[in-house]
Amino acid sequence: MRVVIAEDSALLRDGLAQLLRMRDVEVAAAVGDAETLVASVAEHAPDVAVVDIRLPPTQTDEGVRAALRLRAEHPGTGVLLFSQYVETAHAARLLADPAGFGYLLKERVADIGEFVGALERIAAGGTALDPEVVAQLFGASRRTNALDTLTPREREVLALMAEGRTNHAIATAFTVSERAVEKHIANIFTKLDLPPSETGNRRVLAVLRYLENGRDG
């Protein structure tokens, strides 16, 4: 997996690059501003770009603006916003097509293994979203909703889907057949009113619904 990092703090930038290299992740470039980020992605075609939101020169939203540009110009590159802040003005636009996108808060990432796992999911076209980010972006509340109609096992399956687990991995976790997992997922889609669609990824939309409502509903 090849990544490009954009972080204005040299200490954090170099530290993250070193930690990723220790986990056999190729860091093609580690840069400190948005323009160099865009140029580096064009040059190296990474699997994922790790982008801080506040970058020079104004330290406001250059990072998220660069992320929007990367999504438009390099759709094959996943984007992970990695910041101390939740930016709502532009970030919601990135979730219009959530495949290959992530948004994590720095202080809530427990360890480097968790971070690398998020990068792997994004590189594979999945998502990695902090529930706090989703709650702020969508103004979520713990209201009664379709999630309340899920059975305990269906909620457990959805929770593992939110972790990026495959059907096979979920089946292994519960010691059941993949067919049983597929049935649970089909029930989840039905209860969340997510019909088949040529443009929507139902699995991603179900996970977003789960995260938006604070995991436990």
Fold and architecture overview:
This protein is an alpha/beta fold and 217 residues long. The chain has ten helices and six strands; from the N terminus they run βαβαβαβαβαβααααα. It has a six-stranded parallel beta sheet with strand order 2-1-3-4-5-6, with helices on both faces. α2 (34-44) packs parallel to α3 (62-73). The longest helix is centred in the last third of the chain and has 14 residues, at 178-191. The model is unreliable at 140-144 (pLDDT under 50).
Describe the secondary-structure layout.
Blueprint: E1 2-6, H1 10-22, E2 26-31, H2 34-44, E3 48-51, H3 62-73, E4 78-83, H4 91-94, E5 101-105, H5 112-123, E6 127-129, H6 131-138, H7 152-162, H8 167-174, H9 178-191, H10 202-212
Parallel strand pairs: 1-2, 1-3, 3-4, 4-5, 5-6
Helix pairs in contact: 2-3, 7-9, 7-10, 8-9
